[in-house]
Amino acid sequence: MERKAKYDYAFKLECVELVLKKHYSDRYVSKLKQTARWNIRKWVSFYKAYGKIGLLPRMNQSYSAKFKLKVLNIIEKESLSLMQAGIRFNIPDISIVLKWKKDFANFGLVGLQPKQRGRPVSMSNNKGKKSKSEKPLTREQELLKENERLRCENELLKKLQALIQARKNPKP
């Protein structure tokens, strides 16, 4: 199931054209269209860099550790802002780059490796079930099991008898 984009392509293009062709300010367009000003600025920047293709939704992209490291090195070397790096490398959201920075600072190169998505393989449906052993039970084990079964049956009968008594003699 794919996630739906918050703003569609036509809406983004309309906002960008208001800024670039009609020379409205990003602040005015953000108030007019009731969206965040930084969204307008981001869309205009992507439009200038990549044309109409820059406004198309890009979701669930996977980046290699090599690419992530390259982006972080260039940010450091050229003192790029997160927004500038996002536009230069066509990364749709600056929070992605920010997460890469934190992961690299905390875990090094291992933190930049792509994470496995979805449910872990170790989880299974039969967690609570006990597997039966192949070898037969000894006489002592059989008697212990039967004893336990009889105790449970006895407790059940006592509770049933108590319920029957409670229905016959309701307390006022």
UniProtKB/TrEMBL annotation:
Signal peptide range equals none
Q: Recall the GO molecular function terms of this protein's record.
A: sequence-specific DNA binding
SUPFAM superfamilies in the cross-refs:
TrpR-like
Question: Where is composition skewed (Basic and acidic residues) in this entry?
Answer: 131-145
**By what name is this protein known?**
Transposase
Q: Which organism is it from?
A: Flavobacterium hercynium
Domain of life from the UniProt record: Bacteria
The region called Disordered is annotated at 116-145
Q: Where are the transmembrane segments?
A: none
